[in-house]
Design goal:
This protein has a two-stranded parallel sheet. It has helices spanning 2-28, 59-65, 67-107, 112-166, 191-207; strands at residues 54-58, 170-174. It contains five helices and two strands, in the order αβαααβα.
């Protein structure tokens, strides 16, 4: 029992020594206490704390009725059709070559080295099609991502102006399946105004 107490005491001394070294090393490295964080302006006057003004938009309505999204989706569909047509052309060329090779291979007994060449060419044709498909998929995904980024920027830019104009502190988003607002008094639903403003700005951009 005494032996166990002695071991625990030694470990405690080592722990304290390690802690002392740790803090000394960090102090010598120039770490200093951080200054107090600035207080949010809404809470500086404790007797008159500013209440936040909150509104929300319905994201599903924006996605359905914002003309920019409709236009971009139409362009994306056009790109998809073009990519599909291009893939079909590339596929047809390689399919014809593959059929010719198979017909040639089946027409007679090929030497082993020639049969290997045919087999390798067929594998190459298949690999080329896989590469073309992957490249086209990447291009479409990049266009979708660019559209999403531009959409978010447009909405944020407009909301910055709208919130200042209406003296709103927060604009939250409600969407089916991913609600950030679990309940919202419809009196604070600004979707229609925001949607109208977004479409007006977008139409002006298109005219330019």
């Amino acid at each position: 029992m005494k032996k166990n107490i002695w071991i625990i005491a030694v470990m405690a001394v080592q722990f304290v020594a390690l802690g002392y070294l740790f803090w000394n090393q960090h102090s010598s490295a120039g770490i200093v206490d951080l200054p107090d964080a600035p207080e949010a302006s809404a809470f500086r006057d404790t007797a008159n704390v500013k209440s936040a003004i909150v509104a929300y938009i319905n994201g599903d309505s924006i996605n359905t009725h914002f003309q920019y999204i409709k236009d971009q989706e139409a362009r994306l569909q056009s790109s998809l059709k073009g990519a599909d047509a291009e893939f079909q052309r590339e596929y047809a060329k390689r399919e014809k070559e593959a059929q010719d090779l198979l017909q040639y291979a089946n027409s007679k007994q090929l030497p082993e080295d020639e049969a290997r060449v045919v087999e390798e060419r067929l594998a190459t044709l298949q690999g080329e099609l896989q590469q073309i498909d992957a490249k086209m998929s990447e291009d479409i995904a990049a266009k979708k991502e660019a559209m999403t980024i531009e959409l978010n920027n447009k909405v944020k830019k407009y909301l910055d102006k709208y919130a200042k104009m209406k003296n709103i502190d927060y604009v939250l988003n409600y969407q089916e399946g991913i609600p950030i607002v679990l309940y919202g008094n419809n009196a604070f639903n600004v979707t229609s105004e925001v949607l109208k403003g977004l479409n007006e700005e977008y139409q002006n951009e298109k005219k330019k």
